[in-house]
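Hi V.,

You were right to ask for the full record rather than a summary. Here it is.
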Amino acid sequence: MIFDRENLFFDEKTLASSMTSDVLNVGPGEASDNMHIVADVKTTETSGTISFAIETAEDADFTTPEQLGVFAGVPLSVKIPRGNKGYLRITAKNTIASGKLTAGLVWDDNVSYIKPVKTFTTSITLP
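Predicted structure:
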């Protein structure tokens, strides 16, 4: 998985109880194969919870935000829900005492799910 700085909501941001990400301008509309939103927390804590609300709006100020979905836990990997209006952001609610949050858009969240192409051996009998 490769992060592009232009597509990061949070870049190793110190955890707080309530957090709002940077706004990403992804353009309005839908893709036939949406990008993944991935998030993870670097921490040594053994308890706590984190939840994410993915929001969209027609302007970067989020004058009238709409919630596309709410997800809990890390590591998180979900496709961008349908309904994108052009700008995306994440709001997070957290009870993990300390750590760093990274979240962003990627095309391929985990290449290990791709199955190798099967190869077949064919024998031909020549006359």
